[in-house]
Amino acid sequence: MGLRLFNTLSRSVQDFVPLDPAGKKIGMYCCGPTVYDFAHIGNWRTFIFGDLVRRYLEFKGYTVQRVMNITDVEDKIIKRVQETQTPLREFTARFETAFFNDLKTLNCRMPHQTPRASEHIPEIVALIEKLLARGLAYRTADGSVYFSIEKYRAGGAQYGQLVKLNFDEMRVGERVRSDEYAKEAVADFALWKGRVPEDGAVFWPSPWGEGRPGWHIECSAMSMKLLGPSFDLHLGGEDLMFPHHEDEIAQSEGAGVQLPGGRFVQHWLHGAHLLVEGRKMAKSLGNFFTLRDLLAKGFTGREIRCALLTAHYRETFNFTLEGLQAARAALARIDDCLRKLRELAAPAKEPADPPLLGQFAEALDDDLNVSAAWGAIFEAARETNRKLSENAMDATAAAGALATWDRLDSVLGVGAPQEVAVPPEIQTLLDARQAARKARDFKRADAVRDELKAKGWVIEDTPKGARVKRL
Ligand code: AMP
Ligand code: ZN
């Protein structure tokens, strides 16, 4: 079975067919962070979802070009830049660096390109000029340029493809300047915002005077520059459907740069939001977590990644610290199984469990059904543990099982745990215990075992000898 994904455009699960006639290359654009603060774990749910899509496409043998923009010109940023009296680049650099560090901590593959809006002003201006030339945009007295929804619709295009919109209340030419607005406030939106005092030093020259781009046009310009006027996948959180993605479609298709009949984007994917303890995340509710908040509580990047990958991307996910503990326990079970396999395994092998790989792919082909994929993995881990405990697995089978896991983990990215270095003091005690056992001094051996336990280490006897692991 091939990959099937829900497409917000058609509101149905569709076969995923690449635009590339050879069926090999895939262009994918993910709306990236607005760098005015540290990304919170809700944002990370969406970014990890994007990473999962990319990794799974690569698992299936596609060559993916993943672009993720950095929104570094936007209303919220400019407000903060003004409040902190910091130059734009200096202000955004801090959060951009944090974002890339977090991306690594969560083991997301680095996108192939991460364009900054501030470095694409010429492309943005050129796109707005196209819209003006086609009569779909108009200038206002304050040096701004707006997109005319009326003209766009009059040309036969549909505004409101991702969400249903009610135009009854809309008055022609009514405008909205801010980047974010509700569905009920549908109106002509800003492509270029004429300079105002509140923008401070954030402005660029343009044919319409000094000003700055609106948020939506930034993504249209950057995505089409890097992926071409028509590409396969566009992805973001569900809040981006309107107005951001709706406006992207209108601008990009309104510019008429696609081949006849061609779409800006074939397949739109939207991830559902993350709630924390059943509620929307808010600093005032005390349930607002950035990645560093969770790391400070002692959780690791892989545990957080695993927790954020437990629910289907179209389901609202309720994040709790207990859920994170459960992810820790689940990973510990997998780690334990892998460790035993490594102790037994012969040198590297081909994956030995095609049925498991098949079940895994079948689950993810079905609109990325991660729950079913995890289910297959835990079932296999239980079975492997059973065989191991019955000594029913040989070195070759163990190596094959490990190779299978490597394939699965190329998609999940929850990685191998960092081997904990054994402190010399602990190693000395372990050696002493082994020496006592060899001398058949079991009393002494048990005493050392207890001493190790008191220090937080437990001895495990394995076919390759005794080792210690953290309690
Ligand atoms: P932003 O930095 O605000 O532009 O958001 C970055 C990404 O995070 C976007 O794709 C948003 O849709 C997504 N996002 C924002 N809040 C949440 C949330 N609570 N849960 C999941 N994704 C979110
Ligand atoms: Zn975007």
What features would you describe in this structure?
The protein is an alpha/beta fold and about 475 residues long. The chain has 15 helices and 15 strands. The strands form 5 sheets. Strands 5, 6, 7, 8 and 9 form a 5-stranded mixed beta sheet that branches. Helix 1 packs across helix 13 and helix 4 crosses helix 6. It is elongated, with a radius of gyration of 27 Å. The relative contact order is 0.11. The site of zinc ion (ZN) has 3 residues, from loops. Zinc ion (ZN) binds next to loops.
Please name the defining characteristics of this protein.
binds adenosine monophosphate, alpha/beta, 44% helix, binds zinc ion, 471 residues, 15 helices
Topology:
Blueprint: E1 4-7, E2 12-15, E3 25-30, H1 41-59, E4 63-68, H2 75-84, H3 88-105, H4 121-133, E5 137-139, E6 145-147, H5 149-154, E7 175-176, E8 188-194, E9 211-213, H6 215-227, E10 231-237, H7 241-254, E11 265-271, E12 274-276, H8 291-296, H9 301-308, E13 317-319, H10 321-344, H11 354-365, H12 370-389, H13 395-412, H14 424-438, H15 442-454, E14 457-462, E15 465-470
Parallel strand pairs: 3-4, 3-10, 7-8, 10-11, 12-13
Antiparallel strand pairs: 1-2, 5-6, 6-8, 8-9, 14-15
Helix pairs in contact: 1-13, 4-6, 6-7, 9-10, 10-12, 10-13, 11-12, 14-15
Zinc ion binds at residues 31, 219, 244.
